[in-house]
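To illustrate this point, what follows is a protein record of this kind.

___
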Amino acid sequence: LQTPITCKNVDETTNKNGKIMHCTYQRVEAGGQNWFTKFLLTELDGEDILIGFPWLKKVNPIINWKDKKLPNSKPTI
């Protein structure tokens, strides 16, 4: 990244791993849809990925909130 980004946790505290310095662009496929998406890279203790509300709003995927899954899909990156 040209300008590092301060990484905030879900509770708005600053992430202990410091600023985000790198990103990658990857194709994501889920629910019969495809996107080319920018991923910001940082350490998320115990988590593989954190999807933000702006992305969810833009993509508007069908989500099974009870099972915490995208129905009828196996997301691939």
